[in-house]
TrEMBL record:
<protein>
    <submittedName>
        <fullName>Flavin reductase</fullName>
    </submittedName>
</protein>
<dbReference type="InterPro" id="IPR052174">
    <property type="entry name" value="Flavoredoxin"/>
</dbReference>
<dbReference type="InterPro" id="IPR012349">
    <property type="entry name" value="Split_barrel_FMN-bd"/>
</dbReference>
<dbReference type="InterPro" id="IPR002563">
    <property type="entry name" value="Flavin_Rdtase-like_dom"/>
</dbReference>
<feature type="domain" description="Flavin reductase like">
    <location>
        <begin position="14"/>
        <end position="166"/>
    </location>
</feature>
<dbReference type="Pfam" id="PF01613">
    <property type="entry name" value="Flavin_Reduct"/>
</dbReference>
<comment type="similarity">
    <text>Belongs to the flavoredoxin family.</text>
</comment>
<keyword id="KW-0285">Flavoprotein</keyword>
Amino acid sequence: MGSDNAIERAHRLLAPRIAYLIGTVNEDKTPNLIPVSNLTSVSTQPQQIALAVHKQWSTFETLRTAAGFTVSVPVFGQLEAVWKLGARYSHFPTAGPVEKLIASGLPLDYQASEYGPVLSSGIGWMCCRIIARLDLGGDHGIVIGQAEQVWFNPDYLEIDGTPRGTPHPVMQQTGNQFTSTADKFTSVPYF
């Protein structure tokens, strides 16, 4: 049987989860990029995703009025930089979003999307226009984004998005515990 406070950790059963980088630009035109693992596909026709962001973060405030956001998928070798981008969570000392982006050392493209910066050396990225905002009363707010642009890095993915080798995205188990994917893919035949 579970402990009395196990329900407060129920989300840990959903781990490990890919740590995506969510790019935004606030009303003052300041770019930002934060790691978020609460993201999932909710439609494939059209391509739509649900993103949940903690309400205490400035990214949540930006998403309340922004037209869209970006999603980048970093590789495991970029973990230290991803952790720096999570400054509110990791306690990485930074003077602000722009300084944090510079300190991460990641190659970022600020021109690919008006919605926010993208990681130009990760597994790939997409730009999403916000089509709905939800508040279910929890500590995270939810936005639904519809993909408008996507880039699959040919170093990691085929032109159709299928893996080329093993991409190894950053995956968060919990807190500051991370892993990468298994070293081997297995395919099973369709029936």
